[in-house]
Design brief:
The chain has about 350 residues and is α+β, with helices and mostly antiparallel strands. It is globular. The mean pLDDT is about 95.
Length: about 350
């Protein structure tokens, strides 16, 4: 079996009309060979990704999820804009090809990029790739190095001066995610009022730091070279990118970093293989990032707690869609308890 991330038949209710889509893309991308074959990448909980096979060419289509969705988190035009700005400036971003706002084609806005073939790490290492401790660490070190390089990119020169508002970024994030959690609460959701109050009080003042941040930077949003699995060759899923505080981005990345000595309830929420022998600890991630970026890292507790809270809100929002019958994807059923554990962990770390 290939180590390259595999696409499968689309989930029920999430198929695309290959004939209509193929005819449309053939008019937009000269030389595209038909017929078009459409497959779906099965992982991920947010925007949907499809593999389009046209002869020997492979493309990836991204569209919002089916059902009710928060508009700002699934803006295809915004995601395509940042990819267009990064073309030729950030080697790991996918090559953008076409953006479509006409919902009559597939029922939603979408965009298409060239596929970056390679290995994507999910919850567990692929069985075909032995998780040697040296490889695990090398991949994680590459992950941190590329994030630091993204944060160092000249976003103004890339034409992204109006892409976000770095002033007041932390305050907007705290208030915005607090409001999202309130709207997405279900009967079983944890009470986060004390946590949001803590974040409001502890948020940093204006730091002057501003960078292009990915906002969902983690192991299953990057691609490693199949021939050299320690080499990071792609960064995917730019839907939440903006201009903001790079340490907020790093804190959100660390929310996914469950390490081997974490308590059992947190280990049960693990989404990525950050617990394996040879894996970096969260403290080592911070030290490595500081070395690459040259930034002096302050007391990182606010950023870590905020990252946990934001991840809990994202998970709760997805569960809310499932709870209210807006999606039939059974993977979402377990997300309610996961959100609760993340809230409880954030509360515990805020009190430490």
């Amino acid at each position: 079996m290939s180590l390259v991330d595999q696409a499968v038949a689309p989930r029920a209710g999430e198929a695309l009309d290959a004939g209509v889509l193929g005819d449309y893309l053939a008019r937009q991308l000269p030389g595209l060979e038909l017929p078009l074959t459409v497959r779906q990448f099965p992982s991920g909980f947010s925007n949907l990704s499809y593999l389009l096979i046209a002869g020997r060419r492979e493309l990836v289509l991204r569209r919002p999820p089916f059902g009710t969705r928060p508009k700002s988190g699934h803006d295809m035009g915004r995601e395509f804009r940042v990819l267009s700005a990064l073309a030729g400036r950030f080697a790991e971003s996918p090559q953008p090809l076409h953006q479509c706002e006409d919902e009559s084609v597939i029922g939603a806005p979408f965009y298409v990029v060239e596929r970056i073939r390679g290995i994507i790490l999910r919850r567990d290492f692929p069985p075909e790739l032995a998780p040697a401790s040296g490889l695990v660490r090398a991949q994680q070190e590459a992950l941190v190095a590329v994030q630091a390089r993204l944060h160092a990119l000249d976003w103004r020169a890339a034409g992204l001066a109006e892409f976000g508002r770095p002033e007041g970024y932390a305050a907007r994030q705290v208030s915005g995610w607090s409001e999202r959690y309130a709207r997405a609460r279900t009967a079983s959701a944890a009470d986060a009022s004390a946590l949001t109050a803590w974040l409001e009080v502890r948020q940093p003042g204006e730091t002057g730091r501003a960078a292009l941040i990915h906002n969902d930077y983690k192991l299953d949003n990057v691609v490693f070279d199949e021939a050299n699995p320690a080499r990071l060759v792609g960064v995917l899923d730019w839907e939440m990118a903006t201009i903001g505080d790079p340490l907020m981005d790093l804190g959100c990345s660390l929310a996914y970093w469950v390490q081997a000595d974490d308590p059992p309830e947190l280990l049960a929420t693990r989404m990525l293989p950050t617990h394996l022998p040879g894996a970096m600890t969260r403290q080592e991630v911070l030290e490595r990032y500081a070395a690459h970026s040259g930034l002096a890292l302050p007391d990182f507790r606010f950023y870590r707690v905020f990252g946990l809270f934001r991840l809990a809100v994202i998970v709760q929002q997805i569960y809310y869609r499932y709870f209210h019958g807006q999606t039939a994807d059974r993977r979402f059923a377990a997300l309610g308890p996961t959100a609760r554990v993340l809230i409880e962990r954030a509360i515990a770390e805020s009190a430490a």
